[in-house]
Amino acid sequence: MSPRPILLVLLALLLSGCGSTVAWLGVRLLYENVPPTERVWLDLPYREDADSDPVKHRLDLFLPEGDDWPVLIFVHGGGWTAGDKSLRAGGADVYSNIGRFYASQGIGTAVINYRLQPAVTWREQVDDVARAIGWVHDRAESDGGNPDALFVMGHSAGAQLAAYVALDDRRLTAAGLSQDSICGVIPVSGAGYDLADDKTYALGAERAWYEERFRAGDTGNGWLRDASAIHHISDDAPPFMLVHVTNEWKSLHHQNRLFHAALEKAGAQSQLIVIQGQGHNRMVLNLSRGDKTPAPEILKMIRESPCTVS
After folding, report:
1. Which of 17, 80, 162, 262 maximizes the CB count within 10 A of its CB?
2. What is the DSSP string of 223-284?
């Protein structure tokens, strides 16, 4: 067996929490720890009303020195039903490492939590992400950041949530923002951008699996459109950099190409990056490695954005 399948098996076990020895080995092979930064705030509440969740309405901030730095919000994955910003696998703090990495590159980074299904529906999850983005935007200047250089990134389910929020002006308006407030969106290995697309299911996606997560009490088929980010695309959409990898499901490949094409058709700016020889879970670790794509491309997008260089 070649080394690549072995690494993929190790990481699948690593991220599922199966086998402490396997997880330890997987981290050592794929994870590159970023040294701690001095400006870190953990478990900050971005919502504090009577209905706030003491765990899920929280975020971690990783900030660089200096001032006028761009700001990145990261949204974790987990199939809309699992996941946490404090994920540890094989002793490694996977998402916090992403925060430390981008802070080390001069980008203030917030790693956020949001409520999970089935305790809430996808609608409340979108609202949580929007609220977190609004909170980070409002605080950025006081911390030394540039609130007008705001970027959103997510992985897997987090990619779908990030994309949806960035395109839904209603959610952004409720959070005190608009589409103009978002300088760029980086959905990594996302799915569910167009839930009404029949070809996606023909390529192997399970309609029942998505229906369980997105019907949310709809008695008809309106959920197929309502929960699909693709139906919120307009020529006012912020720039997108869509990333997916070759060792993922064909249905996911198709969703990313479909979403990219729809953005371009609407006149929005969109890049599509396909990374060879990577898998869905392994990609999470590459987000905090400067020697592995897509991190260099993400840094380039942020640093060369008109929001950052103006």
Report:
1. 162
2. HHHHT-GGGG--TTPPPEEEEEEEES-HHHHHHHHHHHHHHHHTT--EEEEEEEEEETTHHH
Check whether residue 73 and residue 154 sit in a common domain: yes
Please report the pLDDT score of residue 207 as a whole number. Answer: 97
**Does residue 178 sit in the same domain as residue 131?**
yes
What's the domain range around 291? Answer: 37-309
Contact status, residue 34 vs residue 104, Cβ threshold 8 Å: yes
Q: Which residues contact 283 (CB under 8 A, 6 or more apart)?
A: 155, 188, 189, 243, 245, 275, 294
Please tell me whether residues 22 and 70 are part of one structural domain: no
Residues 26 and 51 in one domain: no
Residues 150 and 15 placed together within one structural domain of the fold = no
Task: Work out how many domains the chain is built from and give that number.
Answer: 2
Strands (E), the chain: 39-45, 58-63, 69-75, 88-89, 92-93, 108-112, 145-155, 184-188, 240-247, 270-279
CA distance 56 to 106: 27
Distance, CA of 177 to CA of 258 (rounded, Å): 27
| 9 and 155 housed in the same domain | no
Window from 26-35, 206-215, 273-282 with minimum mean pLDDT: 26-35
Whether 7 and 282 have beta carbons less than 8 Å apart is answered as yes
User: pLDDT tens across 163-218, in order?
Assistant: 999 999 999 999 999 999 999 999 999 999 999 999 999 999 999 999 999 999 99
Residue 152's SS3 state is strand
pLDDT of residue 90: 73
pLDDT of residue 19 exceeding 60, the answer is: no
Contact 107, 68 (CB under 8 A): no
